[in-house]
Design a protein that fits this description.
60% of the residues lie in helices and 0% in strands. It is mainly alpha-helical and 109 residues long. It has one domain. It is globular and about 35 Å long.
């Protein structure tokens, strides 16, 4: 029996216009990389993403996020063909999934 539930509540997966789109997530990731929060409990995500965007560039980070959130690729293999360390795919995927939750929670208020 096929799994009908999306892994991530991202618009491209669910078809729900109330869910954040993958572009919203990428935009927030890039924004946070450029403007890391200092006094926030999740500031470590901002710092990690800033280092990854600096190392690999925004397009590679965007590709990994899309592969994870939309194409259901595992965090480690989402880096294939990008000359990126697998562990950095895990870091990007973890941060992106937290930022997706944050965006969707904002829409709930």
């Amino acid at each position: 029996m096929p799994d009908t539930e999306a892994n991530y509540n991202v618009r491209e997966q669910t078809g729900n216009p109330e869910h954040a789109s993958v572009d919203d997530v990428v935009d927030l990731v890039i924004y946070r990389a450029q403007n890391p929060r200092t006094e926030h409990e999740d500031a470590h995500f901002d710092t990690a993403v800033a280092a990854l965007v600096d190392r690999y560039g925004t397009e590679s980070v965007r590709t990994v996020i899309n592969r994870i959130l939309v194409d259901d690729e595992p965090f480690r293999t989402a880096t294939n063909g990008l000359e990126m360390r697998n562990v950095d795919g895990v870091r990007i995927g973890t941060a992106a999934s937290w930022f997706l939750e944050e965006l969707n929670a904002q829409d709930d208020h």
